[in-house]
Design goal:
Length: 276
């Protein structure tokens, strides 16, 4: 017969959970053991996500000349789920101001909006004028690579203000800017106190060339035991395999055009969760 002493798990008056605690299976079981069948929580944000571009076709479609398959909508929806939010997946919006306006109005019922493509300065990039019409733009470009064309603003929905992140269309740029900007915002919307991934210092195993005026986030492979980091290989903004191979981002500050092998650099550990 198993006998448990009173107070061996918890003592009377002891605080068991605090505000902003993430409810994992153990926390839920603990609450149930105390008879707390219902508690107040912060709901998961509902995040509308869609892609833009006449050249973009669905994943299952055959490619005609000049077309690309839509990887962003799938990868961003997965990243939204991984950030503890619920994606509301839309379709592919053509390069037409009216179609984009209608898509944004529909998406405004969500708690946040994430789009990919249409945020550069080409003739077919309509996000800036349409967003200016429907809400506000806080910034339109940021001095990083990859991911410089990045928009953030708010969409008006009656008395509500819905944050919108306009991410670049290139696959790597889209996922990387989600990691750096959207994921922390979604965690904060959930009431999380700590929203930044852990970092480490590591010895660079190879030289890395950068653009002097831009902060560069290279996709890297970090070896904890050795304290070293190397790139995943070619770092083009369309080389999605670089994100597949990476377990970190190598954060290289602007002001230099080359980092040498043997230097100590900062790495963001993208495979590790934020502190609880």
């Amino acid at each position: 017969m198993s006998v448990r002493a009173a107070g061996e798990d918890l003592r009377k008056g002891e605080r068991i959970l605090t505000k902003a605690t993430v409810l994992r299976p153990a926390e839920i079981g603990l609450l149930a053991s105390l008879g707390r069948a219902r508690i107040r929580v912060t709901k998961r944000p509902r995040v509308a996500v869609f892609s833009t571009g006449d050249e973009v076709v669905d994943a299952g479609a055959a490619l005609a000349p000049g077309q690309i398959r839509d990887s962003n909508r799938y990868s961003l929806a997965a990243a939204i789920r991984a950030a503890g939010s619920d994606p509301v997946v839309g379709g592919i919006v053509p390069d037409d101001p009216g179609a984009l306006r209608a898509a944004l109005i529909t998406a405004s019922s969500a708690d946040a909006i994430v789009t990919s493509g249409g945020v550069s300065v080409g003739d077919h990039d309509h996000m800036k004028p349409v967003l200016s019409e429907l809400g506000t733009i806080d910034f339109w470009a940021i001095a990083i690579r990859p991911g410089r064309p990045l928009a953030f603003g708010e969409l008006r929905d009656g008395d509500r203000r819905v944050p919108i992140f306009g991410l670049p269309g290139n696959a790597v740029s889209s996922l990387l800017t989600f990691e750096l900007f959207v994921r922390p915002a979604l965690l904060r919307m959930q009431g999380r106190e700590h929203v930044s991934r852990p970092r480490a210092r590591a010895r660079l195993l190879e030289p890395v060339e950068t653009v002097k005026s831009l902060r560069f986030f290279a996709r890297g492979i970090y070896e904890r035991d050795a304290g070293t980091v190397r790139t995943t290989g070619p770092q083009g903004s369309g080389i999605l395999r670089s994100m597949v191979l990476a377990n970190c981002l190598i954060d290289l500050a602007e002001g230099r055009d080359r980092y040498e092998a043997g230097e100590t650099v900062d790495v963001i550990l993208t495979e590790e969760p934020e502190p609880r």
